[in-house]
Amino acid sequence: MAAENAEKTAPVISREGSTEIHAKTAGSKAVKIILITVSVLFLFVMLVMPLITVIYEAFRKGLAPYLEAISDPDTVSALLLTLEATVIAVVINTVFGLFAAWAISKFRFHGKKVLVTLIDLPVTVSPIIAGLIFVLTFGRQSVIYPFLESIDFMVVYAVPGIILATVFVTFPFISREILPVLDAQGTDEEEAAALMGAKGFTIFRRITLPHIKWALMYGIVLCAARAMGEFGAVSVLSGHLRGKTVTLPLQVEILFGDNKFMPAFAVSSILVVLAILILIVRSIVEYVGKRKKGENSQS
Amino acid sequence: MYIELRDINKSYGSFKASDNVNFGIEKGKLVALLGPSGSGKTTILRMIAGLEKPDSGEIEIDGRVVNGIPASERGIGFVFQSYALFRYMTVFDNIAFGLKVRRMNKAEINERVNGLIKLIGLEGFGKRYPSQLSGGQRQRVAFARALAPNPQVLLLDEPFAAIDAKVRQELRKWLKDMIHQLGVTGIFVTHDQDEAIEVSDEIIVTNKGRVDQTGTPIDIYRHPTTAFTSSFFGVTSELSDYMSFRSFDDIGEYDKAIVRPEFVKITKKNEFQKYKSSAVEGVVRDAQFRGNSIEVTVNCNNSTFSARRGLDEPAVEIGEKVDVFIYRIFVTHGDDVKLLKNNALREETVVI
Q: What is the predicted ipTM?
């Protein structure tokens, strides 16, 4: 593709004489080679090399120590906590994202722009600050702390805090993916269904959901990926209680801090595998979604 | 009256979409809401359907005031301008949707949907998706979907707007026959006069949120009662000073004098013209072939207007001097309109 484009555009740029066209084509070939080389080198240094290093370091001492490192009880509990936080964050944000996107695209109301801006807040605020906000809101200094203590519900330095931080950091992903699709669809089909006597939920299930299905899936994948990797906000709220409030990224940090490099890389490799799995799911979702869109798009 | 709107008002902010709208429609009639864009015709349609609420006034369908009744219970079929077919459902499922929502049993649904697919001439297309159909086919599916739950009233919003000219002709006739055959009462919105004339039994002309005139197409054409309706049908031109043309009564003050091509007779100098004494001389500016006639544009007494000549009549040349005789004109003053006949025609009847 890139090669074709380069060769096609070159003669258009210079119309005088064939020698110059040749010169330009040759020039664009050189440009092409340079661009590709730079991109490949950059990707290699920035992405491939670190990945190889992680896998290499993880398996440097062989398979047995690797298995031992990843079956360490603290690591297993960190993996479980990460999955728990991810699943809960995805469920909460799917519901919230659907509600928010639906409200924004189908109704006219005051403060709509404020809501749209607020949804983006977690992306713009540094995760560390997000973590601090929750510490101040639910920690010992907070006015609601006595109440939380009376019902024995701890947020800071406990699992609910970790989940809260994960939800906060990932909440724009799903609504942001659905919104443009809902906006583009308009309200005609829903109105048509309502006129025929369909109730709200039927309309959502039969008309709206099929339409936003692939955008929703894509949003869920992005949300899950972000939730698994979240470090900053979770780090502030976690308190690093090993085996209790430590997620996988925190476990990597702890091991690394203890100079246990091989186990640190081994745990990292779990995150790498999860990331690759998510990338594969993402590609499938994207591919299938595009194909479906091509099939069903109405002119 | 089967459908009746009484004193309907509707505003969007400072924009008055409906300004004291009143009209009634008889059962089984196919009625056109005709007006330029922004005249409030779609708003009227959406209020009848229940998709918009009037600010004041009553809407009555079949003797029942429906203002408080939700859209889904009014027994109305609606065809959207964009068709709004459910793009993730097949043709069959689109048509079946309204029946499934009503929890009709499966055998009945199959029978009804297949019957409708046959009616719209799309047998074998049941499993296709809307994106795999042509514009005309989609329109027919939208029509069948709206008809499936057996509505008593069918509302169509610019039903032919998105279809190319040739298919549009066929569909107009098809729709008219179909609605009369099924006995439903239909209202359709259009901004196209030809479409309104050809398809409807009755026309409701809307302008600036008001109903200007209602009547059969031929009625409105012959006896426009407002300045707007007099200039709405067909190709109209204005005369700068109608008194400069011979044999018209002087009515004093007026705003516009409107002439239609069919009111004008153009004759070559060597042709016979019965009312030669009342004709004036004009110069041919343009002559265009229009398929079944020649449209001749003349400049005459500082006005430019057109007339038609038959294909069998001798051709006129651009720049040629011709005799121009005007049978009648519409003269408007404010919202009133007056039809003036050339007195030369009356003199003849007096003689006889």
A: 0.73
Same domain, A142 and A36: no
Q: Which CATH number fits domain B237-351: 2.40.160.20, 3.40.1160.10, 2.40.50.140, 2.30.180.10?
A: 2.40.50.140
**Residue A46 contacts B where some CB pair is shorter than 8 Å:** no
Test A195 with B129 for CB contact under 8 angstroms: no
The total number of structural domains in chain A stands at 2
- Contacts of residue B97 in chain A, CB cutoff 8 Å? 193, 196, 198, 206
Dihedral sign (CA B310, B314, B318, B319):
negative
Query: In angstroms, what CA-CA distances link B251 with B120, B230, B247, B342, B345?
Result: 54, 17, 12, 13, 18
Are residues A172 and A263 both part of a single domain?
A: yes
- Nearest Cα of chain B lies from the Cα of A111 at a distance, in angstroms, of 18
Measure the CA–CA gap between B59 and B78, rounded to whole angstroms: 17
**Contact (CB<8Å) A210/B88:** yes
For B328, the 3-state DSSP assignment is strand
3-class secondary structure, B227: helix
pLDDT tens profile B82-140: 899 998 899 999 999 999 998 889 999 999 999 999 988 899 999 999 999 998 899 89
| Neighbour-count burial of A83, counting CB atoms closer than 10 A to its CB (0-12 exposed, 13-18 middle, 19+ buried) | middle
Tell whether domain B3-224 is in CATH 3.40.50.300.
Answer: yes
pTM for the complete prediction? Answer: 0.72
Full residue range of the structural domain in which residue A156 is found: 63-296
- Shortest CA distance from A211: residue in chain B: B88
